[in-house]
Write a structure and sequence with these properties.
mainly alpha; 14 helices; 0% strand; globular
């Protein structure tokens, strides 16, 4: 009984507390970013929050409180991973999505739309099936040579493409693209930490050798780039959508990197790969549904359609042409 409470039971409790912290951090940081921004100016294609703007945002008490909550959530999640397997702890992180939806609904005194609820359920189901399936077939082994460098380059290309798409668009598309790009960068952090720990534990490299130092530099760069992209997402969309992208894309990217590039999926059968792909598609569909049906996105679309429809000029009436009989009579009088 004591072992059950000190092991999985305590780990589940810590993971749930971490999910609450992540949801609260997303809501607080989103409010801090949106407080000093003009949606009509800051959410235009090609417009991004500048470094100076980020420094100003980082001084706001709400943003700092959100950062403290995020750090607390990370510590709780790490402690849960020490006490229980990945397949038990990781799916619980996606519970931050419904918690963020609930917090926003309570703040606005507004019931979530059906499309939002469907998106939350799809995200939870997709991530849960994906992580549980991957954890059941993954094998632990030191990464092959140059695998971490290749993984970093692949993720860098993905991040650049998603960030370019996000900055070229506006509204919920920018929010989802930037949040997914940030989540991909954070997924690379998990993969690099896992790869370095395996290499050091197996004795292949020392803690201060160049491959380890390069991986540490990659972790630092990924955290900075991911954090910047997440703040861009907060400036363009609601916190529930951002936290959904993070909790969906981060574990999927980390598991795929470990399975495909780091050799952890060598024993995964073909039918399991189909299940993984289906779960990833389901989770992504949930994020898109949540983003499209969120009240903020619906209100933004209505504001764009309404004035546009009213701004179309009404065509002027053409001058009436006199009937043919009157025209012929006028011509005959003219000849006389």
């Amino acid at each position: 009984m004591i072992d059950a409470v000190a092991g999985p039971g305590l780990a589940i409790t810590l993971a749930l507390m971490g999910a609450v912290c992540f949801a609260g951090a997303a809501v607080l940081q989103h409010r801090a970013v949106a407080a000093g921004s003009d949606p009509t100016a800051d959410d235009r294609p090609g417009k991004a929050i500048s470094l100076r703007g980020l420094v100003e945002i980082a001084r706001r008490p709400g943003w700092l409180a959100g950062l403290a909550l995020a750090a607390c959530g990370s510590g709780l999640h790490a402690a849960a991973l020490v006490l229980a397997p990945l397949s038990v702890v990781q799916p619980l992180g996606v519970l931050a999505v419904p918690i963020a939806v609930l917090l926003t609904a309570l703040r606005r005194s507004q019931r979530p739309a059906p499309g939002v609820i469907v998106g939350v359920l799809l995200s939870i189901a997709g991530v849960g099936v994906f992580v549980a399936t991957a954890a059941g077939t993954a094998v632990s082994s030191p990464p092959p040579g140059m695998a971490t460098l290749f993984a970093s380059l692949v993720v860098a290309v993905i991040v650049l493409l998603l960030a370019g798409l996000g900055l070229a668009r506006s509204g919920w598309v920018r929010c989802v693209a930037c949040a997914m790009a940030g989540a991909a960068a954070f997924g690379l952090v998990s993969a690099l930490v896992r790869a370095v720990s395996q290499s050091v534990a197996s004795g292949d490299v020392g803690p201060l050798q160049p491959p380890v130092l390069a991986a540490v530099a990659g972790v630092g760069a990924s955290v900075l780039v991911g954090g910047w992209l997440v703040q861009q997402a907060f400036g363009s969309g609601p916190p529930e959508v951002v936290i959904a992208c993070l909790t969906v894309v981060d574990p999927i990217v980390a598991v795929l990197l470990g399975a495909v590039l780091l050799g952890e999926g060598a024993a995964t059968p073909l039918e399991t790969w189909f299940l993984l792909v289906g779960a990833a598609i389901t989770a992504t569909a949930g994020v898109i549904s949540l983003a499209r049906h969120h009240p903020d996105a619906v209100a933004a679309r209505a504001s764009r359609v309404g004035p546009g429809a009213a701004s179309h000029p009404v065509p002027e009436a053409l001058p009436e042409t006199p009937p043919p009989t009157l025209w012929r009579r006028a011509q005959s009088l003219h000849r006389r």
